[in-house]
Structure formats: C-alpha cells, structure tokens
Amino acid sequence: MSASSVGSLRGVPLPLLALFVLYTLASLLHFTHNAEFLADYPGLPNWLTRAQVYVAWLVVFAIGLTGLLLVRAGKAVAGLVILVIYAVLGFAGLDHYFAAPFSAHTFTMNFTIWFEVAAAFALLVYLLAAIRAQLRAGKVPSTP
User: Fold this and answer.
1) Whole-angstrom Cα distance, residue 72 to residue 75?
2) What are phi and psi of 12, to 5 degrees?
3) 71: closest CA among 137, 142, 5?
4) Spatial distance between the Cα atoms of 136 and 40, rounded to a whole number of angstroms
C-alpha cells in the first residue's frame, strides 16, 4: 500500500477511500438523524443532547481519519488497525434495538441504522482482507 500502488490516490487505495467515504457518510447520516430527531428515538436517555450526538460523531470520525492518514503516510498496518476500530464502531447503532425493538423505530430510523451497519461491514471486510494481505506479504513486524 504505497503511493505508487496501482489504483491509489495519494497513498490510499481507491477501494479503501471509497468505502471510507461511504461509511463516513452513512455514519454522518445516522448521527445527524439521531441528533435532529433525538426526542423521537425510543428508549434513548433523557440526558442525551443534540450537541453530544454531534460530538460523539466527531470523535468517531477522528478515529477513522487518523487511521486513513496513517495509511496515507505509509504506516499501513497501524492505519488499518485503527480503521478496523473505526469500522467496528459502525455496529454501535445496533444498540438502538437494546433500547427499543425494531418495530418501535420509524422506517427512516431503521434505514439510517442499517445503512451505517452495512457500510461499516463493507469497510470491515475490506480492512480484514487488507490486513491479511499485509501479513502474507510479511509487512507486519514479527514478535520475538
């Protein structure tokens, strides 16, 4: 995964960039819907505010951006591992169903939750394959 790789843009492979953007937009859509319709989401705590939802998204996004920048800087393994964390965070939206059943959520609520989960899953599958490729290529430092 270098800047000279075929199909890359500034050191980030295009499939990774595309999946990163897709998940980031899906996540932003879900968090924005949460923030703007916070009172309508069933089972969410009363103390949760619109601003807190946006801050939470910024924290999650910062994790993903850090991973992407590490990949771009040539630190592929570290970047990919951080991006795995970012992708796994995309499954947190499923927590809505611990607060209230699927049927208690509107179509749009369910759509934004599942769109984020599907995009996170796609990114995660790509990342795990990329890490596997790094391992097979011997680009991961071995432990003594």
Assistant:
1) 7
2) -110, 120
3) 5
4) 48
> Residues 47, 51, 55, 60: what is their CA dihedral angle, to the nearest 10 degrees?
70
Q: Are 93 and 85 in contact (CB under 8 A)?
A: no
pLDDT tens, position by position, 73-123: 989 989 999 999 999 999 999 999 999 999 999 999 999 999 999 999 999
Cβ contact 100:42 at 8 Å: yes
Q: 7 — phi, psi (to 5°)?
A: 75, 25
pTM of the model as a whole: 0.88
Please, which residues bridge with residue 9 across strands? Answer: 12
Task: Please name the residue that has the structure tokens 């599958």.
Answer: 125
Q: Which of 100, 124, 116 is nearest to 32 (CA)?
A: 116
The SS3 of residue 11 is coil
Question: Taking a C-beta distance cutoff of 8 angstroms, is the pair 71, 12 a contact?
Answer: yes
Helix locations, the chain, DSSP H: 14-36, 50-72, 76-89, 96-99, 107-136
How is residue 7 written in tokens? 């199909």
The structure tokens listed for 138 are: 């011997």
